[in-house]
Amino acid sequence: MKILYLYDIDNWAIHNVGKLWFENVKQHEIVFKNFFEVQDEKKIYINFDLIWFGYIDLYLFSKEKPKNSIVSIHDPKEIFDQVPNWKKTLPNKDKIDILRTVFKCVTISRELFTILTKYGIDVEHIPTASRLPYRDTLKVFTEKSDITSVFQVYRRKNPDLMYSLQQKVVNELNIKFDLKVGRDILTRTKYIKYLDSHEIYICTSYQEGGPIPVMDAMNRGMVILSTPVGQVLELVEDGVNGFFCYSFDDFYNKIQMLSEDLILLDSMRQNAIATIKSKRSLSIIDQKVDIVINKFYR
Fold first, then answer.
1. Residue 119 near residue 96 (C-beta atoms within 8 A)
2. CB 101 within 8 Å of CB 234
3. What is the pLDDT of residues 158-205, one digit of tens each?
4. Helix, strand, or coil here: 85?
5. I want to staple 217 with a disulfide (CB 3.0 to 4.6 A). Which of 42, 124, 179, 201 is the partner?
């Protein structure tokens, strides 16, 4: 079987998810194309058994709507408004109707799988994972409680909460709190070095599909403090490898507690590595991709 995978930005999120999913597929031929570089090519779809759109807007932008289309849904924002109480709102009706007509839909979180199934969409679940190596637990030494987060400034990331938290933590607790904001791509080596210089990772989003940086952080032995979103719901065990936080005070109090108990922080860092190994190993992803593609093949 020959599959065309369409993404938007070279070496960015949707492209990298495709590489994660398909780099070890041997039985079928996977061809990667930047959608915006090939959308005007005539008959681009004709030589492929499946056309896999990296996210729903690429399918909507496409001049042709192939009957053999697979559409990935990565994030609630693709079908819901970016509002904090989005779970209590209705999804975009037009997009839901469209997803009911495509050959197949794929999503990355159990949260979205449940929602899409509820609306009668034929959906498969393939999670995402970090492609960073696991940190050797013997090299995890906890002598401080430095904090970081990696994100772009979207409403759903709740940046105001992040910035206000950073300011108070730095001023009142005197803890280093770095933010990597924007699309500047670090080399793999520099990114690993950056993560390894911190012990705690913060996610303040109210909508997520992943996020993958949380998984990167867990691979490198960081404790996760996060809102209950996306795949974080599947990975964080409250009080074991991180904490779910529901307010500014929750975040602040958990940071203060961990900074004052480095033995607990060290133990939770070890647990983070163990959890991500068991729940998001690349072999688990490969098996899931193989199962889903074979369903399409039949």
1. yes
2. no
3. 999 999 999 999 999 999 999 999 888 899 999 999 999 999 999 999
4. coil
5. 201
